[in-house]
Design goal:
Layout: H1 7-11, E1 17-18, E2 46-53, E3 68-72, E4 75-77, E5 79-86, E6 120-126, H2 133-150, E7 155-161, H3 176-184, H4 224-251, E8 257-264, E9 270-271, E10 274-275, H5 277-292, E11 295-301, H6 321-348, E12 353-354, H7 360-370, E13 373-379, E14 395-402, E15 408-411, E16 414-416, H8 420-425, H9 431-440, E17 445-446, E18 450-459, E19 463-472, E20 480-481, E21 487-499, E22 504-516, H10 520-527, E23 529-536, E24 541-551, E25 557-566, E26 575-576, E27 580-582, E28 614-615, E29 620-628, E30 641-649, E31 652-656, E32 660-661, E33 673-680, E34 688-698, E35 707-716
Parallel strand pairs: 6-7, 6-8, 8-11, 11-12, 28-35
Antiparallel strand pairs: 1-23, 2-13, 2-15, 3-4, 3-14, 5-13, 9-10, 14-16, 17-25, 18-19, 19-23, 20-21, 21-22, 21-24, 24-25, 26-29, 27-29, 29-33, 30-31, 30-32, 30-34, 34-35
Helix pairs in contact: 2-3, 2-7, 4-5
Length: 718
């Protein structure tokens, strides 16, 4: 182990802006798009996806173009594009993992999927604006079973809540730690006010029903409380669709078979006064957006098999038989209407609805089975499809039929006559809205390439904190040349830190103007700039860090986000700080003057800085971290610690270091123990994404808390 020095620069100094000399690889931020797997609505092609099943629900995969008929507004169309796409992962040998050293062995780091490895992208959306207490519990159990048993290799998953605020949205991930943390936040929303699917019937002597003199033609006289509940339900429904709209927009450019599974107690398409105009308009827009983004929406009624008759919780004393009959009929009507809303949303986007079943996990399994594959069917539309009539675009109905008897087909039902190009250019959002949208989105944006590195640290005086390094690829910013030869750019930076409840703990925003003269301009392009921010953490738990950059001239936006767990240091259990990874010692950081960004000169050390961690084959990698709460020996006062290093790629262990005892020059007492080490890369190592994991064992601690681990990703580039 080498002498500790680098950690003081990254985990101890109050840095603001640094410049480092590493040119980011486009592979890290640019996702390859597969045009064959995207539904396109343009003047030359309308393309939809479809699933065909037999009477038993089994998928049929051997159909040909002549087995289908497709209609637009009742007019037959000629099929010009046809293919079948499978999403099932290829069979592969089991990945080698770290050999366990006991029941408390350190966990294996999660695999970060590349875009070409993603088979399915699944958003599990919990409509906690509508869930009763019982539904919230059963939904949480179903989500746990999904993560434990139903996730497959190649799945990118996000667990989102409609009532948690945009700050609670997480990025799509294959990391089960993040998903478990999101599941823990799925709880009953007190604003719903219901314990079970329907509020119990009770007579209210202070508000009797007056049906002696005035006749109610619907026999459904509503109390003021009922009217308020209906209005609140309408607002919550629109809020639910707004959250779904946000999710579908983010899914638009992601790879794989894209789907949303909505867990909800339903919503009404109509109110007792007629059409729910606000809701229907929001629903139509959501359906059109999902169709354009090639997102299938499935819905799950979390109420299960509902009893609409009298239950033990109902108190009907003081009510007439007619009033009881009316209340029970209203229950049945409410169940039917809210299920109809879920069914409509699913059918219009090519999915289906799970209802009247107490097996929520079984319903999710049906959805996953439905995503094994699909047909892509396209046709060239008539010129009138995208022609405006009196300034308005029509909604066109798509009907797909299969000629083979006994088969059923599900596909998207229609779209507005607006091309994809028009929807992209007609957004009209302000720069502030673009920046805020990128910041709050659970999806990373690559128009301005960013790399975010967040590290946990702890100080005896200030306590726990998270230090983040945000690298901005300056080549994606717009520069203008001034008369004196200076190259100038202006951009905005916004960074938020969210707790797992969606509440922002810290927010930073600032506008920067950077001017570079002469030969320094090329150095800045090669090095980029790094922003350094530190957020104190008062409570342990899961946190999300999000940052966004807006180029003022082009209005291009980039965003990045990261999940990090902050342990409870006060429990006196073995804890590791974040790992600082580099190729050599760094020069002291340069603080940035207010309102300006500064880029340091590129150097050999900066080429492999902690903000980028990109190393050429044959180079050395240095790692630094701190050990906290090591148990001292009662006699010698010295800790008995062992460390082991692993290097992994795609879940496979490529290098296993020797387990070695850690020695310290001075008696450490209770202070954090600095540890550093180095690895030498092979000259023939393949380029790609790798993970370095450090496992530390405290031989004097209780067996349950004896081992802990920390890891960090890095890249090999040529």
């Amino acid at each position: 182990m080498k002498k500790y020095s680098l950690l003081a620069l990254v985990l101890a100094l109050p840095l603001s802006v640094q410049g480092f000399g590493q040119r980011p690889s486009p592979q890290a931020s640019e996702q390859k798009k597969d045009d064959d797997k995207v539904v396109r609505l343009g003047v030359t092609l309308v393309q939809v996806d479809a699933v065909v099943t037999d009477k038993k629900g089994l998928q049929i995969t051997d159909l040909r173009p002549e087995d289908f008929e497709i209609f637009e507004d009742g007019r037959p169309q000629k099929i010009t594009n046809f293919s079948y796409v499978t999403t099932e992962p290829p069979s592969a040998p089991a990945a080698e993992t770290i050999a366990p050293s006991g029941r408390n062995a350190a966990p294996v780091p999660p695999v970060r999927l590349r875009p070409d490895q993603v088979r399915r992208t699944i958003a599990l959306v919990v409509d906690d604006l509508s869930l009763s207490f019982e539904s919230a519990y059963y939904t949480q159990e179903a989500l746990k079973k999904f993560v434990n048993e139903q996730m497959q290799p190649g799945d990118m998953v996000a667990i989102l809540r409609t009532g948690a605020g945009m700050g609670a949205l997480q990025q799509f991930t294959a990391d089960k730690r993040e998903l478990y943390a999101a599941i823990e936040r799925v709880r009953w929303n007190p604003r719903v006010g219901r314990i079970s699917a329907f509020a119990p019937i009770s007579s209210n002597p202070l508000n009797p029903r007056e049906n002696e003199e005035e006749e109610d033609p619907l026999n459904e006289r509503r109390s003021p409380d009922e009217a308020i509940d209906e209005f609140r339900e309408s607002l919550f429904s629109v809020g639910t669709l707004g959250a779904l709209n946000f999710v579908v927009r983010g899914l638009r450019d992601l790879p794989g078979r894209k789907s949303v599974i909505l867990f909800s107690e339903g919503f009404r398409l109509y109110t007792r006064q007629g059409d729910n105009f606000r809701f229907l308009e929001a629903l139509r827009r959501l359906v059109d957006l999902a169709n354009r983004a090639s997102v299938v929406i499935y819905t799950v009624d979390t109420r299960g098999l509902v009893v609409t008759g009298l239950t033990a919780a109902d108190n009907v004393s003081g009510l007439s038989s007619g009033e009881i009959e009316t209340l029970l009929r209203n229950r049945s009507t409410s169940l039917f209407e809210t299920q109809a809303g879920l069914n409509y949303l699913a059918q219009e986007t090519g999915g289906f609805s799970i209802r009247n079943s107490n097996d929520i996990s079984g319903g999710v399994a049906r959805v996953l089975d439905d995503q094994k594959g699909y047909y892509l069917i396209g046709y060239i539309p008539d010129d009138s499809t995208f022609r405006a009539d009196s300034g308005r675009r029509a909604f066109h109905k798509i009907t797909l039929k299969v000629r083979r008897p006994g088969l059923r087909v599900r596909s998207r039902k229609g779209f507005y006559g607006i091309t994809d190009e028009e929807t992209r250019t007609a957004t009209g959002r302000t720069a502030r809205e673009l920046l805020l949208g990128a910041l709050l989105s659970p999806f990373a944006s690559g128009d301005v390439r960013l790399r975010l590195t967040s590290l946990f640290g702890h100080d005896e005086r200030q306590g726990s904190f998270v230090r983040s390094l945000l690298h901005v690829d300056v080549r994606d910013l717009s520069f203008t040349q001034e008369p004196d030869g200076t190259r100038k750019t202006a951009f905005d930076v916004v960074a938020f830190t969210f707790g797992d409840n969606g509440v922002p703990l810290d927010r930073r925003s600032q506008s920067f103007t950077m001017g570079v003269r002469g030969d320094k301009f090329q150095e800045v392009l090669e090095s980029g700039i790094v922003f350094n921010l530190t957020v104190p953490i008062k409570k342990p738990g899961a946190y999300q860090l999000r940052a966004a950059v807006l180029d003022a001239a082009s209005e291009r936006v980039g965003s990045a986000n990261q999940y990090i767990e902050v342990p409870n240091v006060k429990k006196n259990r073995l804890v590791l700080s974040g790992i600082v990874l580099s190729g050599g010692d760094l020069d002291p950081a340069v603080d940035a003057p207010s309102g300006e960004a500064v880029a340091a000169e590129a150097s050999a050390a900066a080429q492999t800085s902690p903000a980028l961690r990109r190393f050429p084959p044959g180079s050395s990698i240095r790692y630094d971290l701190l050990i906290l709460n090591a148990k001292p020996d009662k006699k010698t006062k010295e800790p008995q610690l062992e460390a082991q290093v692993f290097v992994l790629r795609d879940g496979r262990v490529l290098y296993t270091g020797k387990r070695s005892a850690l020695k310290f020059a001075a008696s450490p007492g209770k202070k954090p123990l600095p540890v550093a080490g180095s690895l030498t890369l092979g000259a023939n190592i393949e380029p790609g994404e790798y993970i370095l994991q450090v496992v530390v064992t405290d031989k004097l601690a209780k067996e349950k808390y004896r081992t802990t681990t920390q890891w960090i990703d890095f890249q090999i580039v040529k």
